[in-house]
Amino acid sequence: MTAFRLNFLSLFWVPLAWLPAALSEPASGAAPWRTLTYVQSAFGVTNYAWDGDSVCFSNSHNLVRFYQGRRKSDVNGTTVWLNALPGGSVSTGNWRLSGIDLDFLQLAVLPQEEGALKPVRVILDPGHGGEDNGASSKDPQVREKDLTLSMALQIGKKLQAAGLSVAYTRTNDTTLALDDRSRLAREAGADVFVSVHANYAGNADAAGVETYVLPPNGYPGTADGSRPRGWQIGNRNDFHNTLLGFSVHKKLAVVNQAGDRGLKRQSFFVLRETSCPAVLLEFGFLSNRTETRKMLDPGWQDKCALAISDGILSYAKKVDALDKAVAEKRKHEAEANERWRLHLAAPAAKPPAAPPALTLSSSNAAPATVTVLVPPVSNQFCVTASRAAPLTGTNAAPPELNTLIDFYATGKVE
Questions:
Q1: pLDDT at 256
Q2: Under 8 Å CB-to-CB from 278, ≥6 apart: which residues?
Q3: For residue 279, is it within any domain?
């Protein structure tokens, strides 16, 4: 729900301030948090390690590390950037992790078991093209549009050899608008969208691989200064975006070797306007001469294309299990929200008889003050900036404004 909608709703009735936290913008301070004890239990570990800079949770299957004062985390050796900065401090006992980051980790990042290969249809999007050269290197002389097309075609061949159906937004030096890329994915009935790019920075020493997926509704991107956005089409697939992004990035980061810059989030057009799970890859820096020469090596290109295709295949082997896990999560959330709705709609207990009304002697007397009390909801694991309440997760459209106004209309809720 956008901030505009919340401000508009607040004009109607005071009890709208008691909406469940899931109906509020995370940026407004109503995002749920999970305590250190809760996170430890969720990861299935008996203890944690704190070294003054990071807190680490580990067992025989996973090792997850969170850094104090940073959105960076490390998951089994792969860098993953969080949606929200962890709050509090381990040393003072009030450290906490955002609920949405824990959900993504548990459902989309940590599961390792793969099932049968689902025959997903992949559309590959070589960045730039035609009149748009993208980034470029002068020594050696390379244009991003040429490099991305070469890489996309190699990735496609490997996916087809593995049995997947593959399409492309372009197969030659053609100019394509951003909305054309998303439209082609929709028309192709794509299950997976992969946009291939090469990076560029003012710092000639910058190197490494970055992988991007869309931030969830109400959260900022990873880049400094990114602002939180409202719900986008791509947010229907938040868990699947995360699974796809992590599956590809952990393979690609190993091949690159120049540095793992992490799985990040940014509201790029092709990520927010594409209706299927989508990821954008930056597999090297054309501003770095050493890395550019490496990217031109046919052997490196083959390894890189294989890593990306392996990541997509891993996604295709895990997506059915994720579908079931997300459906189960939705079921629990719907049940919790229904309990909350019934709680709000239940008639209040009959109050004790009031004393006889007093006759006011002045026609200018102030009107009586009515105080409405709503009992707090106890939740020892959920710390929020507003009243705790059941969560509606991601992958769902925000509630309609008219529905909320109708629900909170006078006489329908005590």
A1: 76
A2: 185, 192, 193, 194, 195, 213, 214, 234, 237, 241, 244, 270, 271
A3: yes
